[in-house]
Amino acid sequence: MIGLGRMGANMTTRLLRGGHQVVVYDRSADAVKRSAAEGATGADSLADLVGKLAPPRTVWIMVPSGKPTDDTVSELLRLLSPGDAIVDGGNSNYKDSQARYALAKAAQIAFIDAGTSGGVWGLANGYCLMVGGDEDAVRRVEPVFTTLAPPNGYAYVGPSGAGHFSKMVHNGIEYGMLAAYGEGFEILEKSGFGYDLHQLAELWLHGSVVRSWLLELAELAFRDDPQLADIRGYVDDSGEGRWTVQAAIDENVPAPVITMALLSRFVSRQPESFSAKVIAALRNQFGGHAVKHEAPPEPVAST
Predict the structure, then answer these.
(1) How many helices (H) and strands (E) does the chain have?
(2) Which one of 92, 93, 256, 302 is least enclosed by Cβ atoms within 10 Å?
(3) Alpha carbon distance 262, 275 (integer Å)
């Protein structure tokens, strides 16, 4: 296992509990020590990790997408031998995965793209795995997948790129679901009825058509902080929503919900939307509608 962040470390623990022997590497020596304390074999470099594995080796990568994954794969291709396998369980773009597959194929090394869902709850609940690549290579690594996944939570979904493409769309759907919950609870919060949002979230988990695991997480969040007072409304994105929207454009598929959910995340990162300022100014110009002005800056005390 290369990369012992929130996902990689928990996946290592689940594999160890499932009876697998795991060699681990991370740039953080402390992260390696923590996994080693649970029974993993620590390595201090990629070369050391490869040297501690017996052929045919299986190396799982859980590092950020883009250049970190590129660099890791490039070095592994120099270190591994024909018949070995690389599994990328991160959120890589499926086109990048297909390019890495071609490079690995030329070196007679299998490259498997494993779309991985489950977050920090995966250790206890298991990870949903959407796996793409050459089927014979996937079947060889299957004991790892079935240990990480809950019952019926793993599937071979197709050739190279299919795993990460399906995970990309999965995350695009997630964007829309999160946006719907966010908008709904904001309407409730602003309604004036004084709703107990935790009560409603918990209520909807029983028999409601909108019940889901995400709603269970909303119930937990409102239980801990009923007004979400300690959370800033800044929503980041890790790329999959953008890629899903681009795929929809490329394939002429209308995807307004996912697209608007993505754009709403961009709005959340602005201290104040400039487009909203333009709209307010135009309404003032054509209809005389009142505008709210910025507060004047505080005077600076002279020294």
Answers:
(1) 13, 7
(2) 302
(3) 17
| Residue of 75, 174, 189, 202 marked active site | 174
Alpha-carbon separation of residue 15 from 47, 221, 236 (angstroms): 22, 29, 30
Residue 277 bears catalytic tag? no
**Residue 105 is a catalytic residue:** no
Q: Judge whether 133 and 158 are in contact, CB under 8 Å.
A: no
